[in-house]
Design brief:
homodimer, alpha/beta, seven-stranded parallel β-sheet, 7 strands, globular
């Protein structure tokens, strides 16, 4: 029986293999994405981000446990965009809760950025689709660290949780201001430590500075993930966000935007594939490349010979 | 007199305007890049990265001051890839040393990531070329924060300094392991604080774990940037790296690789420009786009109609 058949029958090993194909962009993975596409758009995705040491993994596990009790099927994807060289060594250190690891309705997967950053968020988007098509109700997407890499990865999700903790220092807080805009629910974890109320207030203050009040007012939830405290409240706020998305037709809009972005991405990949095929087929390519390398010809002149084009040299599809 | 003429005569306001053109990818900026290309490859670029709070700006200023005393013309570019939303508000807070700001042979510029990350490192590479062509001997490229964004930006430089300080905690150190591979010179700044020797030792230990010893053994320099202590030693190590690059022909190789990367980038932009032009010219585009948005057609089918291609859908030029 072939991989896709086993995938459709709910075989988790087929799922794991398919994800590897998709991550590596193999022909099998590409064909699968095409085949699966129509079965996506059902599962809810939740992105979780925040600085190292805020207890993201524990919080994700606890949230997964709450959703499991409600009978939902859960996937957890842990993405590490900050480590292009270690190849995700940090991920291996993460210990998930045992009962989740043993639960056949919970699927856990790690991804590390092996190549370019754009590649990772693209791969993450594809993996989310595979998990969605497999039938998971909730897909938790956890990132390591806070930076633009994380922001781009987390944006693949519908609902975004931003985790903070007391005591990280104001300098660092200021730098993280950039992620305020992506949070739908804010979590002050380790809130049994001193200063939790102050962090929560700071977040609310920063959110209130937003000149145009968004239709969704992000709540701030205090948790102690290691004890499970506040996690049910967090799950409730996540559900509230889902209801908000549905009621305002925002989910449909989100899916529509994603589909258009997918179309653009597919077209771009084809454009690049076709152009490199065309350039490679030119017998003078190696000669021109060598001249450019040695500084004997500027790359613009070489490009003129290999791929003449006098329009606007950028992607500009609305 | 036109912008390029004034640029060639050393007019700094023309330089500043040209950089804006290049950053924004205007037709003037594109034409200028093409015109300037042949005049690049002379100036030395130094990337400086490290976590917030390690004193990067002060160190960059001190290093610039040492090079200025040696008569070199200096440009400082401060890049903030971690803040896609604040639009570089943090950069404005950075106060450079007054004597640098008043020095006509020192040029200071900030860049924030307004769009995609790839866009920022591309723009940074172009800005480095403009500064190089203008005649700066040393271009210091300072980034905010540590993440893949910073890594990609810093890689545009020939020599990379990685700044650490005592007392940031081991958890954070581990996450930063990924940037060990890009450092040519390591700096333990604030080394009058306790634990500086231990941090220096940790770096040396981590470097020694590298299974294949590189031809260049990165030195670790201790500094107290606020007092200027150790900065002349740092400048010496940077010069040693330059000599190493020259002696081993690595600089020529680096420039050759960059030129080939530039050629690929130009070809990619043309491929994308040509493809979007082609897609936009199709009368059925809006109709198909709408169907994809509403989920009535999958994006693969729409792509088949708009840009049929059955080769390998990725850029693959050697």
């Amino acid at each position: 029986m072939d991989l896709m058949d086993r995938f459709r029958q709910g075989d988790r090993r087929a799922l794991a293999r398919l994800i590897t194909h998709v991550e590596n962009g193999t022909p099998v993975g590409r064909a699968a994405m095409r085949e699966l596409y129509g079965a996506t758009g059902r599962g809810r995705s939740i992105g979780v981000t925040g600085p190292p040491g805020t207890g993201k993994s524990t919080l994700v596990d606890q949230l997964a446990s709450v959703f499991r009790k409600e009978g939902l099927r859960i996937a957890i994807v842990c993405v590490d965009p900050s480590s292009p060289f270690t190849g995700g060594a940090i991920l291996a250190d993460r210990v998930r809760m045992r009962h989740l690891q043993d639960d056949p309705e919970v699927f856990i997967r790690s991804m590390a950025s092996r190549g370019a950053l754009g590649g990772l968020s693209r791969a993450t988007g594809s993996v989310l689709k595979v998990l969605d098509a497999f039938g998971f109700d909730v897909i938790l997407l956890e990132t390591v660290g806070v930076g633009q890499g994380e922001v781009e990865v987390v944006r693949e999700a519908e609902t975004c949780l931003v985790i903070e903790v007391p005591g990280l220092g104001d300098g660092i807080q200021a730098i993280k201001a950039g992620i305020l805009e992506i949070g739908h629910v804010f979590v002050v974890n380790k809130s049994d430590n001193p200063g939790a109320d102050r962090v929560a207030e700071q977040i609310l203050t920063m959110l209130s500075l937003n000149p145009v009040p968004p239709p969704w007012q992000p709540p701030v939830v205090q948790t102690v993930a290691t004890k499970g405290a506040g996690v049910e409240d967090l799950a409730r706020q996540v559900r509230r966000h889902w209801e908000h998305l549905d009621a305002q037709n925002l989910r449909r809009e989100h899916l529509g935007r994603r589909r258009i972005a997918d179309l653009a991405e597919i077209l771009k990949c084809r454009a690049l594939g076709a152009a490199s095929q065309r350039v490679l087929s030119r017998p003078e390519y190696s000669e021109l490349r060598r001249k450019v390398e040695l500084g004997q010809m500027d790359p613009y002149e070489a490009a003129d010979r290999l791929l003449p084009f006098d329009g606007i040299e950028e992607w500009r599809l609305p």
